[in-house]
Amino acid sequence: MPIVTAKEILIEAADGKYAVGxxxxxxxxxxxxxxxxxxxxxxxxxxxxxxxxxxxxxxxVLVAIYKTLAESAPIPICLHLDHCQEVEYCKQCxxxxxxxxxxxxxxxxxxxxxxxxxxxxxYCHAIEGISVEGELGTVSGVEDQVKxxxxxxxxxxxxxxxxxVKMTGIDIFAPAIGTAHGxxxxxxxxxxxxxxxxxxxxxxxxxxxxPLVIHGGTGLPEDYVKRLVDMGGAKFNVSTDLKYTxxxxxxxxxxENRDQYNPGKVDSAVKDAIRKLIGxxxxxxxxxxxx
Length: 291
Ligand code: 13P
Known about the structure:
The protein is an alpha/beta fold. It has a single domain (6-285), classed as TIM Barrel (Alpha-Beta Barrel). The chain is built from 11 helices and 10 strands. The strands form 2 sheets. An 8-stranded parallel beta sheet has the order 8-5-4-3-2-1-10-9, sandwiched between helices. It is globular. The structure holds 1,3-dihydroxyacetonephosphate. 1,3-dihydroxyacetonephosphate binds next to β3, β10 and α10.
């Protein structure tokens, strides 16, 4: 299929009350695994790279592989740059061919967050085929180079959220509502569902204009995930789960087959494990069969 922006698939998701999985990958095996899992499930897909893997693998290389995989897949696939705190790198990835860019200026004050987010949104919108995600409030935990301590966490203010979306011109919006990057330390994390519902109502009650993003997917109980989707979450970010699956599967395979020197078999084991993981997420998000 032709490549797509996140906005295109997320408007449909928000309308249909399901969420699209946005999975952070760090290498080609993971990228192929998430694509294969989404094809198996006939689900729309967002592939994400945070800034470190994007720089390490090279944005042009990533875009070339993305385009090859996406154009031959029978499902819509978007390539998203996740939590980029540098305006210039957002622009470089937009130029390279990413189809969704997240400028994360959420650690700045409100005015500066608006200024940087608007600058990236204006730049991307001048190029065809790119949508933009912005964040208000801060999501605690660690995602790549973005680190927010628990006592620095600030939830998004609903009134400011409306102003932020209006002033920046973003296409999709990530309000901080208490979810966190990494592994949750408690069984029942404190997530402010009502805040999400209120923000969704203020922004999208006359028809979906700006689909909402949930960060910090890993470790959320299934009933939380379903409730967040129900309250307006249309893009659901999952990263740590993929990292753990990659490392644990590699470690276990090598430990059990210490006398083997066959990298292809390690890769296959990782690919299978990631495919299974993504299949479960797609089912939980309700997006299987939505293409
Ligand atoms: P987790 O690592 O908690 O799954 O969060 C992913 C995320 O929100 C990426 O932006």
